[in-house]
Structures are given as structure tokens and as C-alpha cells.
Design brief:
globular; mainly alpha; about 400 residues
Amino acid sequence: MHPAHTASVTLPPPAASAPPLPGALVLLLATGAGLAVASLYYSQPMLGVLGADLGASGRALGLVPTLTQLGYALGILLLAPLGDRYDRRRIILAKAAVLAAALLLGGAAHGIGALLVASLATGLAATLAQDIVPAAATLAPEAHRGKVVGTVMTGLLLGILLSRVVSGFVAEQLGWRAVFVAAAASVALLGASMWRSLPRFKPTTQLSYAALLGSLAELWKRHGALRRATLAQGLLSVGFSAFWSTLAVMLHGAPFHLGSSAAGAFGLAGAAGAVAAPLAGRIADRHGPGRVTRMGAALSVVAFAAMAVSPLLSTHGRLWLLGASAVAFDLGIQAALVAHQTIVYGIEPGARSRLNAVLFVGMFVGMASGAALGSVLFAQWGWLAVTALASSTAAGALIVRLWPATRPPSRA
């Protein structure tokens, strides 16, 4: 396929003198992105309690976050390109309805099989977040676009941050089923608000669905910078997901014997990611995004490897080490993600949404792989095996970023 055939026909941007979006609409979009992405992480702090209630093995429990992340990756690959072809408002409303139903199914599950089906459906529909961000970019006037998109991305990061904290606390107080029911109600309310507030969006391309998907492969083949960014972020995501997918089960057992709220409290480390986003952007502007990716990967290697000394510490000391390591690797991984997005967005401006889709597919394939491998390694060899996996994959990401680029103009 010729490159000219892969680029979408975009509408002209709003005039720079156009008034800014109403604050209430920006807040709604930010909240929507946060609630959608939070659905991916509600289950993680509850796995210990959830497994005991359903009588599921540790290996079966590992499939819950695995299928959620895999569903998200598949949804980005198969559904996100539809936003260029159809009215994005209709897509957002349909996904909100499916996501609410999937969360209700999870809350009503009486066996691990039903919960796994709900997890896959939740991941697919949670790609609602990847429709809201480009919707915000489309609605915002050019002069205010960066600020609007930044605000929506802050909402997304807060969704990741608060999801584990809230789900851990609610699960301990009201039970894990209450978490899914409350999440479904919040998404349903979000859908109603979006129905009332969002305008219709004109399609920006007439490409067929097959051509849209085909353009993803063409972009992958054509841009080495895209392949490097996707591979490096995917490797970092393996360790990230392996840690979070096994943490609750590890803390539930000896010597900690902690509940879901304690595991959820570790999600406060996500605040580091919220701090990292603007800081990484400023460093990338000044010194180039390639340097930021190397800094982020190196910090992640050190943070994951440091957890290997935990058996030498007291129980209290191990908890402090876990918290400090979580803050450090979250800072490194989120900084690397911002820098990789900067690289990818500069490759081919006419295909930014599809380039972003490729990057995030790689990222969430890494997360699904990390959840699966982490649960198996933890069940067979314990926590040290999980830290070894995370350290080695982060080191692999650093090697990818240190390897000389074939095309330096992209600063990749």
C-alpha cells in the first residue's frame, strides 16, 4: 500500500482564535478517561480476597489481569482505528454501555470462568479511554489543544492511581463484588453524561475497515523509530504488570498477611507517574526524548533489581523497600512512555492516532505477558523470580534504547 493511501483525510483544525472548551466538558472528558482506564486495574489489589472467595488457584487468578490487559491490547488494535471512520460520539457511548455491562458481569460472577469472560470484555471496552483522548484533541481549539489534552491525560493517570487505592479499600469494607457494581454504576453515569454533552464527530477518512487495519502494518514496516519505541515500552510493561499482578497475592500470604486495602495503598506510587509526565515532557523538549527513554529504563532496572535484597530485611523493611521501588519504577516507566509518545507523534503527523494505537498495542501486550508470566513464576519460585523477570525485561528495554538508531533525524 502506498504511503499516501494510509494517511487519513483530516478535517481542518479549529481556528486559533476560537474560544476554549467549557471547563465542565474538559472535566467530563478527563473523568471519562480516568474511569475507563481504572477498569483495567480494579481487580489487582483484590486478587488475594477474590481467589479465596471463588476457590481459584494462584495460576487461574493470574489470568484475570492477563485477559484484561490482553483485551485492552486487542481493543486498541481492532477498535481504536474506527474513530477515524465513524462518529466518535457513537463509539464512546457504545463502549460505555458494554463496559458497564462487563463490570456488572464481573461483580455477579460465581466462578472463575465467568470472571475471566468479564475480564476480557472489560479490557476490550475500556479502550473507551483511547477514544476520549483524540476526541478532546479534536474538540479543542488549536491554541488550547495542548492544555486540554494534558488535562485529559492527567485524568487518565489519576484513574490508574486511584483505581487500586479505591478498589482495595472498598473490597475490604464492602466486599470485592461491591467494587465491580460501583464501577459499573459510575461508567453508566458517565455514558449518560457523554450522551448529553458530546457533539457528533465527522469521520476523517473514508478508508474501509480492512484498509485502516492494513495501514497499521504499513506504518510498522516503514518506521524503525516506531518499532524501537513499541518494543522498549512493551518490555518495560512486562515488569510493571508482573509486579502489580502478583503484589496482592504476595502481601496476602506470609509473612505479611495484609488485606486488599494494603495492596491498594501501594497504588499511591502512581502519583510518581503523574509527576513524571510534565517533567519528562520538559526534559524531552530540552534534551531530546531519546535521552528520557534511556533515563526511564535505567531507573526501572535499578528499582526492580533493588527488590532482590528484600529477603535480607525485616518485614517492616521489606514493605518500605517495596514502596520505594514502586515509586521509582513507576516514575521511570511513565517518563519513558511520555518520551516514546513524543517520538511516535513526530514520525507522521497525519497518522498520529494509528501510530499511537501501535505503541499502545505493544505496551498492553507487554502487560498481558507480564501478568501471565508473573503469576506462573510466583506460583513456582516465589517473589524473587518475579523481580528477576522485571529486572531482565527492563534491562532489555534499556538495551533497545541504547542500540544506535538507524535513522537519527527522529531523535529516537
